[in-house]
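User: Here's a structure from my thesis project, written as structure tokens. My advisor, Dr. K., wants to see whether a designed sequence matches the one we expressed. Can you design one independently, without my sequence as a hint?
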């Protein structure tokens, strides 16, 4: 039997990198800790204040109304952090040709390789810690916080999608956490 292979080439743009970065971030415990601190705690305080009958229109810290102080965590997590992440990706992409443009990815029995006009990188399968399939991406983790990604929207057919799942299952075995196809 011939060893299964999978190859894909696709243009990588800022929008796709941003969406992958946001998705990858939601798989990190530190992101959930930040949500708990900046969203969870203010929500609990708001609920407690309403139940206890506190007047949230009264000035509190920074001489702002109490409700505005509680709103700060939401603004930080849902507006400031996504904008900061977008700015970081845009800034890095402006001067680094490896981050945008046509990406070529190949999965072979020897490992995973990715290349473009500016780089060529190869990993043996042992270097990949895990593979995770999300709604929009396949992530191939080479560390606990970093991963290469394959956007599902760039995979042209359902057969190619199944072929990629099969290749990942064969080469990564239990390290591949993929969605069921049924």
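Assistant: Designed independently from the structure alone:
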């Amino acid at each position: 039997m011939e060893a299964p292979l999978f190859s894909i080439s696709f243009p990588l743009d800022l929008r796709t990198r941003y969406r992958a970065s946001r998705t990858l971030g939601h798989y990190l415990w530190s992101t959930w800790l930040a949500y708990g601190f900046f969203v969870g705690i203010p929500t609990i305080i708001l609920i407690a204040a309403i139940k206890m009958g506190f007047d949230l229109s009264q000035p509190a810290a920074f001489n702002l109304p109490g409700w505005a102080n509680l709103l700060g965590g939401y603004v930080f997590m849902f507006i400031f952090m996504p904008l900061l992440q977008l700015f970081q990706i845009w800034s890095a992409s402006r001067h680094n040709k490896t981050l945008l443009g046509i990406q070529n990815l190949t999965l072979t029995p020897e490992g995973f390789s990715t290349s473009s006009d500016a780089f060529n990188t190869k990993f043996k399968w042992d270097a990949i810690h895990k593979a995770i399939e999300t709604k929009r991406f396949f992530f191939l983790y080479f560390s606990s916080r970093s991963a290469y990604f394959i956007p599902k929207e760039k995979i042209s057919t359902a057969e190619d999608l199944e072929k990629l799942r099969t290749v990942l299952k064969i080469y990564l075995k239990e390290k591949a956490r993929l969605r069921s196809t049924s």
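When you compare it with your expressed construct, this may help: Helices lie at 14-25, 29-52, 66-95, 158-172.
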